[in-house]
Structures are given as C-alpha cells and as structure tokens.
Design goal:
Helix content: 40-55%
Low-confidence stretches: none
Strand content: 15-25%
GO molecular function: mRNA binding
Distance between the termini: 69 Å
Shape: elongated
Protein name: Tetratricopeptide (TPR) repeat protein
Largest sheet: 4 strands, mixed
Length: about 325
C-alpha cells in the first residue's frame, strides 16, 4: 500500500500513523505539482532500511513457497502477506502473484480475485503480465468467459514475450469453444510466432491442424518467415528453433520444395554428385563434418548433428538420393 506523506501523522514514539494505526507500506513525499521526490518504506510505523527490507521480503517469500509445497495453506498465506507488506519492488509483486494462485487453489474466489488485481496493479514487467494471464484462466474456469476473454486480450496487448503468446493460445481455444473457428485459427497462427519460449508454438500449430487441417501451408509459412528473419538478423538460435518447429509441423516440407538442407547449406538434388563423411566413416557420436560434392566440381564441407531434427532430415534425404551405401 502506498500513501502520501500529507495523509500521515506521528505518535509520541515517532512512528508514522495512518488511520489511527502504525502504518506498514510505502510513504511518498511529493512536490506541489504532484511529482514524487522521496519514497520510503515503513513497517509498523518505523522506516525500514532498503537492504533489510529486501532480505525480510525474500525470507518471507521463501517461507511461503516452502509452506505451500508442504500443503500448509494458512502458513503460506501468512508468509506471502508478510512479503507483500514489506513493499519490496521485486519480491512484493511476486508474492502477490503467488498469493493469488494460492487463494485460487484454496477455492477462496473473492480473495483470489483481489490478489490477482493487486498483482496486476503493481505493473511489474514480469509478475503483472503473469498474473493477468493467470487471472484470465481463473475467470475462465469459473465460467466468467466474457471477462476471461477481456483479460486474455489485455495480456496479448501487453506484449510480454511469454505470457502474451500463452494468452493468444488460450484465447484461440476459447474461440474454438465458442464456435469462432476462423478467429481461433488466426490466433493460433499468431501464437506460433517468435520468440519461441516454452512449448507454446508447438502446441499452437498442433491445435491449429486439429481445428483446421487445411491451414498447413499458412502454418509452415510462419516458421519459414521466422527462419528468414532470424537469419537476416544473425539470430541462429531462433532460426534453429523455427527449423525444428517446421520439421515437427511438416516433416516433408523440405522435400516438397525439392531441395536438401544439410547443416547450413541448401542443395538442389540435381546438383549433388556425391557425399562422404570427412573422416571416411559415419561418426559414432552422432555429429561430424560431411563433404558434399556438386557437379560443378565444388566441395562443400558442412557440420551435421544427427541429433538435430533439421540436420537428420537433410541427411536422410541425402542418403535417399545417393543410396545408403554412399553414407
């Protein structure tokens, strides 16, 4: 809780008093124009040292997490509330987010809603979007579909790299349940876009094809575009993730294009004359350098990791073209 210094008093012990009680929370001092020039934290009316507050917040939060794991709901709730009361800018919002989930799990609907709303109101860059997403799930499970949809849309608009895409996925499933299939497919396609955090993209493309198998070409294009954009930006990690997702979506995609991708090179089948492992035999540990010879007399040495789905697909296509005896 945050109040203005003008709304406080002091008792005979020098403690900050608000509404006739020693105040716990943050007190801001402002200029006449409303600009905040000082912000201090108080516990039972006594100003706290920031480092001590941070340590107290962390200790209380860790205890809350421990008690929750042990199934001690009341003790966990008390610990999370103590962490929130410290006003720590990092631990406080995280404790609120966890308190909201705890209350939801305990079936305390009103308390859960209040905690979710408080966590969202903190504006924390990670815990507020996460709480917004979790609040939407909570409302959906409680049959508040219109509000759940609104919350998912807010989460999407917030643009958090992880929770916005998870919200897109859930919003798409909600649209399917409500019979808005075309809208749902568009949302699934958006949920597939990078950055690729967690398994949201894979879940989205699988669900998309369950809903409408005719969207395969559109889905493939999402990953093809992601690969091209990532390569242009020198982001090989995202490019590799997109290739893996594309292979999961459509293992035949590369062959349909009548090209063979081996390592970081792309060949037309008609251009390939032969290929061999640089060491003369297939590496026992699953990765190594492959020499690909093309009909223009060039030798192309590429690194191949047979544990990578993309590399494995290219290697298998090469063996199919040249015959297994070649490699």
């Amino acid at each position: 809780m945050r109040i203005n210094q003008q709304d406080t008093q002091h008792d005979e012990l020098g403690r900050v008093i608000y509404e006739n009680e020693p105040f716990t929370g943050e007190v801001e001092t402002t200029e006449p124009d409303g600009r905040v020039i000082e912000l201090a934290s108080y516990q039972e009316g006594i100003q706290q040292d920031p480092q001590q507050l941070a340590q107290a917040a962390r200790t209380a939060f860790d205890q809350g997490a421990l008690e929750r794991s042990a199934g001690n709901v009341e003790a966990a709730r008390s610990a999370f509330e103590r962490a929130v009361a410290t006003g720590d800018p990092e631990i406080g919002p995280m404790a609120l987010a966890n308190l909201a989930v705890l209350e939801a799990s305990a079936g305390r609907i009103a308390q859960a809603r209040a905690a979710f709303e408080q966590a969202i109101a903190t504006g924390h860059p990670d815990h507020a979007p996460k709480s917004l997403f979790n609040f939407a799930i909570f409302q959906q499970r409680n049959g508040e579909l219109a509000h759940a949809r609104e919350l998912y849309e807010q989460a999407v608009a917030g643009g958090h790299p992880e929770h916005a895409r998870k919200a897109l996925f859930n919003l798409a499933n909600l649209a399917v349940q409500q019979g808005r299939v075309s809208e749902a497919c568009g949302l699934f396609l958006r949920a597939m876009e990078p950055p690729f955090l967690g398994d949201t993209a894979a879940r989205a493309h699988r669900r998309l094809l369950e809903v409408d198998s005719g969207r395969l070409a559109e889905a493939c294009e999402v990953y093809v575009r992601a690969i091209a954009d990532a390569k242009a930006n020198g982001d090989e990690q995202t490019a590799a993730q997109a290739r893996s997702l594309l292979h999961d979506l459509d293992p035949q995609y590369g062959r349909a294009e009548r090209t063979i991708e081996v390592g970081n090179r792309t060949f037309k089948p008609a251009d390939i004359e032969s290929a061999e492992w640089a060491t003369g035999r297939r590496p026992g540990y699953g990765s190594g350098y492959l020499d690909v010879y093309t009909r223009d007399g060039q030798q192309h040495t590429v690194f191949v990791d047979l544990g990578d789905p993309h590399d494995r697909q290219g290697y298998d296509a090469l063996r199919e073209l040249l015959g297994p005896g070649e490699l």
